[in-house]
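Contributing new records

If you add data, match the layout below exactly. Sequence lines come first and carry their own label; structure lines follow with theirs. Keep one chain per record. Anything else will be rejected by the validation script.
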Amino acid sequence: MESASRRSSWWRRRSVLGARTTAPTGAADSASRLEQLLRAVRAGFPVAPAAHAADYRCSCDRVGCPAPAQHPLSFAWQSQASVDVEQVTRWMEREPEANAVTATGRNHDVLDVPAEAGRLALEQMDELGVAVGPVAAVGDDRYLFFTTSRSALDEDEWWTSELDTSPENVTEHPGLRWHTRGSYVLLPPSRLVDGSVVTWVRDPDRPLPDPLRVLDVLTDACTAVGAVAVGEHWLIG
């Protein structure tokens, strides 16, 4: 009986210690993900919560979701997107597994290219001395180049982007995509259903460069790797 009691006591202590060592790991992961996201918020990127990967599917539970773990949680994402650190923190505390998107066309646009073209463009921009702003990688598939927004420069001249309001059309545009008003892109540390993650290649607090100069290099890189959008060098929307 005494031996059984000692074994029982040992097991309870082991269980408590196990709980103490595993719980902070999850908390640390959530804290790390939040801090990564807040780097973008502090850089002025308007952020809204997005669906996340859940057992290799989208958390939205939509049958045949065309953009699993890559779309906002709310249809009101454009008005919801915020640069308020406290607001974004509350969202992430409530939904710690949520991905995040940033609304483009306000203070920044995003030029979105195949990863092969993105890596080549970065090499060329460094060699040419072209200013490089924040750059993110979406798994092994795409590179996102953050720039100033053309619509922010002149209120009388701006484009609208419809690409991500119809995400089922994304695969029809394998080349360069220009995300501006009405669009969004994923932000680090979002996770996709295949297990890949969105990461920063160049830090989010870098100054935003002019999009047209970056566009010149990206179109050449896309052409070099055979990834030009059908019928045009780049796609707005």
